[in-house]
Amino acid sequence: MAEPNPSPLAAEARRPLSPHLQVYRLTLTMMMSGIHRITGMGLYLGTLLLAWWLIAAATDAASFETVSWVMSSIIGRLILLGFTWALFTHMLGGVRHFIWDAGIGMEHPEREYLAHMTIWGGLALTLIVWVIAYAVR
User: Fold this and answer.
1) What total number of domains does the chain contain?
2) How far apart, in whole angstroms, are the C-alpha atoms of residue 67 and residue 59?
3) Alpha helices in 60-137 (DSSP H)
4) Cβ(61)–Cβ(55) under 8 Å?
5) CA-CA distance, 78 to 83, in Å (whole number)?
6) Which of 16, 31, 88, 94 has a CA 20 to 30 Å removed from the CA of 3?
7) For residue 104, is it within any domain?
C-alpha cells in the first residue's frame, strides 16, 4: 500500500526551526557589525552638522559665530568627538570588510583580531586627531 501524501503542514513541522536571538551567543564580530551600521547612521547625522557649518560660513559672520559657539561648547565637543570616533571606526570596519572580500581573515581567531583592531584602531586614531587638534590650537 502506498504512503499517503503528507500535508504541507506536516512537512513544515519537520523543517528545522529558525534560531532566535536567544539561541545565539553574541560574539565580538556580531557586535562590530551592529556598530558599523550605527556609526554609518551617525556619520549621516554628522554630515548634516558639516552642511550646517558650511552654510553658516557662506551666509554671514553672525551665523558662523553661532555654529562656532555651539560646536565649541562641551556638548558640541562631545558630538565632534563622537563623530570623529564614528568616522574612524566606520572606516576601519570598511577596511575589515575589504579584507574579508579578499578572502583573508575568515577563521575565528583572525575575525576576532580584526574586530579588536577595529575597536582599538578607531580609539587610537580619534585620540591622535584630538591631541593634534588641541596641540595646534
Assistant:
1) 1
2) 12
3) 61-72, 74-101, 108-136
4) no
5) 8
6) 16
7) yes
